[in-house]
Every structure is written in structure tokens, then in C-alpha cells.
Amino acid sequence: MKGFGNPNIWHTENKWKSIAQTCRDKRIGIFALQETHLTNNRIEALNEHYKRRIRVFGTPDPINPTGRGGVAIVLNQELITPERVECYNVIPGKALMLSLTTKGDKITILAVYAPNVSGSSGSENADFWGNIKTWIEGNPRLPKPDILLGDCNVVETGLIDRLPAHDDPEEATNMLDNLKQFLGLKDGWRTTFPDSKAFTFLQDSSGSQSRLDRIYVTEKILESAKEWKIETTGVPHADHNMVSVLVSNESNPWMGRGRWRIPDYVVKDKDLMNFAYEKEKEAQNKLRNTEISADERNPQKVWFDYKRAIIGKARERAKQIIPGLTRKINEAKLNLDRTLNDPEMAENEKIKQAKQLQEMLTKLESARLTKISIDGKVRHRLEGETPNRYWSQTTKDKKPRDVMFALKKPNAEANEHGILQGNMYEKNSQKMANIAQEYHNLLQDQGINTDQEEEWQRQIPATLNALKVEISEEHRD
């Protein structure tokens, strides 16, 4: 983070508004931060100010909490609300461990901010990893970390994780390796991209870059983890890129991306507006046209066809008119990746170009985050003081939705012990919805004998004759 920003959390230059916005925008459930410059009072103030959105756990530096160090773990309460949270101050200001329990499943996360290595000396960094190992060994009743993440301030393979390439002191890398072996952890990003170059820290003065920030996970988590990314956050004055990963529980069902909505930049598109206007006229004409069958001009069917046409056109336009800022960010990311992984480019030229592209990315991401913030302020000014959907949403707590983990498959049969095997349950959310739909459709036919067609036909006139309301002569035609 490179500091707290303005001490007043209401001030525009306080960084925690950007942190909360990043959690929401990028859908981050758990966010580990270093160099936070937090105090206990600041943590309390943040939790009070953002109580509906995020929850902050932190360990301040014991000597100069507002001037250096500090580690925090942020929970996005819109995505994750654990039943139990246990917080352990492993090394004050340097290492914080959080153990989360949700629906009986526990995950333990250790966030770190390691000391720097300098030249051939890595003793302070080595002692840091050794002290963590000693602390864990001294607390055998506590769970071992499933995830270790943060600013390690040392790289294990300097040939690929530093630009220009050089190795770090062995005493530091060996102690880190010992801790990894003890905890059974692996570098997830490097395991996923064994030959790629990407960095998390840019040294402004020299242009050198390093992959100092990493996420280590257990073998079990690594098997199902996906979407490993290194990206710029846009948080003001932050000097490190963010490393992220999507970690899911094995018992969770498969879920899609959710309900699609027309992006804001497409809603204002002139082509879409003209298309919608023409389709609206067609729909109105169809409703008024008495020459076509009643089924074709059924209002529900006409409305359904109209919506489907608009959505189809909106999807088409969304692919064609990518916003300028988003396009520039995507182009800069692609150019940076090509530059860093170009085997024929000279190292000096690579350092120069990579520095320029990384600085451009940082500015673009900062501009994107600023635009989101301004749009939010404008909407709040317009709608925040009047009773409407936006106002009601901002004044209530946002909690994650309850998840249906599985449904028994139709015609699933238990084994000889009366137990359903694991493959007898459906965990795909779309297929579960289809099972539920079929079940409720079948409920409509329960208690009805569909073989008695003649009896049905005989009862229809008697049922209709019991109705007292009739269509007037005016509406019969």
C-alpha cells in the first residue's frame, strides 16, 4: 500500500476508499495488504466506517505504527461471511494469521511482509522465515497455514524472477524453502506458468523489476485453484502489483458467471437505441394487428421476443465498442507480456520498455478506479437522498447468497446399505435448476389420471357452465 494515505478516512486521498472499491470491483473475497501504517485505532475506525462492506484485521508495527510496516487482511463481507474468525499476531507488524470457518470448512491464511535483502546479505530476511517456523512449531494446537501470501522481499529463482537477472542470498532463500517444506506449500503462480516472466515490483530509479509478491498454497488447494493473475490495482501511490487467485472449496457446486446485464457504456450506444426504437414500433404494431393470430400477438410472447432481440443486439455491440480506457489497459498488458517474454530483445532495451509500459498501466488503472469513484459519487448525489432501489440497497447489509450445494439426481438409487453414492448428486447449478424445474412441472400432474380423456371432455362443459362471468358482446370479436 505504501502508507495509509490521508489520516482522515473521509478524505479523498485516504487509500482505504480505493481498497474497498477494488474489493468490490474485482470481486476479491480476501485481500492481504502490506505496509499499511495501521494503528489499532485506525483499524477500529475503518471497521466502523466500512462495516457494511469490508472487515479489517491488522497487526501494527510495534515501534512506529504510522510510519512503517503493518500487515492487514481484509474480508469482503459482500462475498464472504465466515461463521468464526480466529486472528493470530505471529510477528507484530510483519506477519498476521487468520483462520476462517465457513459451513464446517476451515482455511488458514498467513499474510507476511518480510524484511529486505541487500546485496549478499539476507540474514534479516532469513531470520524472519525462521521465526515464523519457530512460532508455528511452538503452537502445535493451532492450524498450519493453507495459504501464505504477501511481500516476501526475496525471490527464489533470480534468473527468471528478476530483471536484470541475479540470484538472492542463499541464506534467505534456504530458510524460505525450509518453511515451505515444513508447511507443504508451493508457489502457485510459478507452478502454473513455469517459463513466463511477470513482475510485481518496479524500482523507479533503475527500472529493475522483481516478482517479490507471491501466493504459496498447499497441494490440495493448488489442484483446484485457477485464474492466477498479476495485475496493477490502481490504488493511489501503491508501488506493488497485486497477485490473485480463485480458490474454491471442493464441495461447492459449479456456478456460472451469473445473470448478464447490459454494460453501462452499451446502454448509451446510438446504434442500440435506434435498434430498440425500431423493435419497439414493430412490437406495438404486432399488438394492434388484428389480422394475425391471437397467439402471435400475445403480449407476453411479443414482450419476450422484444427483450430477446434487444439482448442479442446488446451482446453484439458490447463486443464491438470496448470502452477506450479498457482497450488501452488490455493493449498495455499484452505489450508488457510480449516485451518481458521476448527472448531476442536485449536486456537493456527490455528494462526500458517494460518500465514505460508498467508506468502506463499504473496510470491507466488509477484513471479507471478514479472514474468508477466519480460515477459512484454522481449517482449518490442524484439518487442517494430519494426513496428508490439504489437508496434501499445502500442502507441495508449485503450478505452472500445461500448456496444450494447439490440435488439428488432423478431416479438415483441407494446401494445395498441404503446410501446414495457421490455420483448420485448433481453439483452443476444449471443442471440443478433443470432438475428443480422438472420436479415442479411434474407436481402439476400429481393426482391427475391422464388416461381418462373421455372423462376430461365430459367435465369441461360442466366446469365452464359454473362460471358466472362472461365476455361482453363488445369484446367477443
Automatic annotation (TrEMBL):
<dbReference type="GO" id="GO:0003906">
    <property type="term" value="F:DNA-(apurinic or apyrimidinic site) endonuclease activity"/>
</dbReference>
<keyword id="KW-0540">Nuclease</keyword>
<dbReference type="InterPro" id="IPR036691">
    <property type="entry name" value="Endo/exonu/phosph_ase_sf"/>
</dbReference>
<dbReference type="InterPro" id="IPR004808">
    <property type="entry name" value="AP_endonuc_1"/>
</dbReference>
<keyword id="KW-0255">Endonuclease</keyword>
<keyword id="KW-0479">Metal-binding</keyword>
<keyword id="KW-0460">Magnesium</keyword>
<protein>
    <submittedName>
        <fullName>Endonuclease/exonuclease/phosphatase</fullName>
    </submittedName>
</protein>
<dbReference type="GO" id="GO:0008311">
    <property type="term" value="F:double-stranded DNA 3'-5' DNA exonuclease activity"/>
</dbReference>
<dbReference type="GO" id="GO:0005634">
    <property type="term" value="C:nucleus"/>
</dbReference>
<keyword id="KW-0378">Hydrolase</keyword>
<dbReference type="InterPro" id="IPR005135">
    <property type="entry name" value="Endo/exonuclease/phosphatase"/>
</dbReference>
<dbReference type="GO" id="GO:0046872">
    <property type="term" value="F:metal ion binding"/>
</dbReference>
<dbReference type="Pfam" id="PF03372">
    <property type="entry name" value="Exo_endo_phos"/>
</dbReference>
<feature type="domain" description="Endonuclease/exonuclease/phosphatase">
    <location>
        <begin position="18"/>
        <end position="219"/>
    </location>
</feature>
<comment type="similarity">
    <text>Belongs to the DNA repair enzymes AP/ExoA family.</text>
</comment>
<dbReference type="GO" id="GO:0006284">
    <property type="term" value="P:base-excision repair"/>
</dbReference>
<dbReference type="GO" id="GO:0008081">
    <property type="term" value="F:phosphoric diester hydrolase activity"/>
</dbReference>
